[in-house]
Design a protein that fits this description.
alpha+beta; Beta Polymerase, domain 2; OB fold (Dihydrolipoamide Acetyltransferase, E2P); 3 domains; 6-stranded antiparallel beta sheet; 5-stranded mixed beta sheet; globular
């Protein structure tokens, strides 16, 4: 079995389908969060991280372990326990569309291929279609791979948006965001303000699409074991984006300059990066924009550096500062 990465799913008998998170994993384990429980459970899908942990504590508590690299307690699935691995990459090569949604997904992929010069082998399909659980109202969850192809992909998405082939989400799509952001206290109008700017989230022929650009393991900004991050508490701060070169990826990170600390320890002024494993924070801000961040302040015992981690707590956010225009 090839090592699962972001966008893939794994299936465990007695647990169900789990969504793989991140690019690097602990030895002989895969970080993955329960998404679709076995049928004996009432809930069809799990939408929040808290519910994912609760479900795994019930069905496979031995998989919830402290990870020395990230400094977090994470669901770490032993490779030998994985019944099957559903790889997003290559879906368009392995499969023939058999309904309107999958035909539209292929059309979108081919439009991007034609405009970018990137082959279908650098694209994949995740979400409900990968699991074979799609409905007429489902989204298209497309995945692109490799930093080498990212610029071409973004230019193609920009051109397709400019020509009206793709459109931005707006207030008409609040129902979709309400489901996707049910675990966030941020008002929906604020999410729309951010999501409408994104090329990685939009509308194609009446269907909402969301896209991830995933780095290959050899391209990722750190190797497993190269850091030992430890939590110092929570922080809320105002910062300026200084580097957005990894902003479009999942996982994503931004270089920042802290302008003011609103809440949290004095060490918050030493933070130079904000990191998230959530695709909702990809393409969230651009260089020179002012942002408001709330998350977990972390210190790396190896590099002696600080960062703020966003995305694993209900109160986490990375938003354009309200006062910024």
């Amino acid at each position: 079995m090839s090592m699962p990465i972001e966008g893939d799913y794994v299936y465990l008998r007695g647990v169900g389908y789990l969504a793989v998170k991140g690019i690097i994993h602990p030895p002989k384990r895969v970080i993955a969060f329960p998404k679709h429980p076995e049928r004996k459970h009432i809930v069809a899908s799990i939408t929040s991280i808290d519910d994912a942990y609760a479900y795994l504590r019930e069905t496979m508590p031995e998989a919830i372990l402290f990870d020395d690299h990230s400094g977090q307690v994470l669901p770490q699935i032993p490779i030998e326990k994985i019944t099957s691995h559903l790889s997003a990459r290559g879906w368009f090569i392995r499969n023939t569309p058999h309904d309107e949604l999958t035909r539209r997904a292929l059309e979108l992929a081919e439009e991007i291929c034609k405009n970018s010069g990137v082959g279908l082998d650098y694209m994949g399909l995740s979400g409900s279609i990968l699991l074979g659980r799609q409905r007429e109202t489902s989204d298209i969850d497309i995945v692109f791979y490799s930093r080498m192809k990212a610029e071409m992909i973004m230019e193609a998405l920009s051109d397709l948006r400019r020509r009206g082939v793709l459109g931005p989400v707006d207030a008409k799509h609040l129902h979709d965001l309400a489901a996707k952001r049910s675990d966030s206290p941020i008002p929906l109008h604020e999410w729309i303000r951010h999501e409408s700017r994104k090329l990685l989230y939009g509308v194609y022929r009446g269907v909402i699409y969301s896209a991830k650009i995933v780095l290959l393991p050899s391209e990722y900004w750190e190797e497993y074991g190269s850091a030992r991050w430890r939590e110092l508490g929570r922080t809320t701060l105002i910062a300026r984006i200084m580097d957005d070169s990894y902003a479009i990826y999942t996982p994503n990170q931004y270089g920042i300059e802290v302008l003011r600390v609103l809440q949290g320890p004095e060490e918050s002024y030493n933070i130079r990066r904000v990191v998230s494993f959530r695709s909702r924070f990809a393409e969230q801000a651009r260089r020179d924009e002012e942002v408001r961040i709330s998350g977990r302040i972390e210190y790396d015992l190896k590099s002696k550096s600080f960062r703020v981690f966003v995305g694993n707590h209900r109160d986490d956010y990375l938003l354009l500062n309200q006062d910024y225009s």
